[in-house]
Amino acid sequence: MTVSVPTDKRFRRRTQLRPSKRRRVFTARWWRVLKVSAIFVIVLFVGYQIKVFVLQMPVLSIDRVIVRGNVHLSTDEALSLVDGLHGENIFRTDLEQWRNALLASPWVKDATLRIVIPSTIKISISERVPMALGRIDGHLYLIDDQARLIAEYGTEYTHFDLPVIDGLLHETSNGQVVIDDQRSHLTMRVMNDLETQPRIVGRVSQIDVSNPSNVVVILDDDEALIHLGVNQFAERLRSYLEMVTALREKVPHIDYVDLRFGNRVYVRPVGLEGGSSVQQ
To answer: pTM score, two decimals?
Structure first.
């Protein structure tokens, strides 16, 4: 016999549990992160492999170097300074290193290197400009507007018509003979000032900076020592050229002319001690 038991309304049948919406969202986010990360890793790997492949391509090995802008530095000399460029990968070579190699040449003031795909390097050189000949220990050297040595003067440079600079050397306390910084700076100032007067600088034959307090100049076809002091070099030389004819009428053979004292010019004749002053 079947017995029917009434349902107790105080209890409910347990329904099937379902994952919460928050948990589903969290899981989906992690899957997206994993997929994006996997794609990123794959892209990095493929990119690296492409980079390795490209950097090993023979077509990107430097096989041509073009030099422009050089005048006194020969092309062969310039190429010898960057000979190691040949065979390097055009994207991996250190251009700054090779630029410094070019700057090691005393002729090179500045240099730029430019890549031309697939395998060419173009070099543009700016050279130092000789401004004078420095007489050092009996030898003549080309020097630039910064009073830096460029090269020893030789037959290949005879086309330069430059004044000779004396007195650049200085003996140190330990007996070593070096180029004096103060005199080099003074030479630079003299040359830069004279360059403002092309007509005058073309007549300068010698410049003596042995005494940093008094620059002495000799002009072409004129044996007189012209004392200029430490400033107004071009202006004082211009003043001398304007009065030299009148001075020669009074003193035919001049040993030196001192222009350091404004309108008062001191002149010493050859063979006489002391000097006389002339009001300008």
So the answer is: 0.68
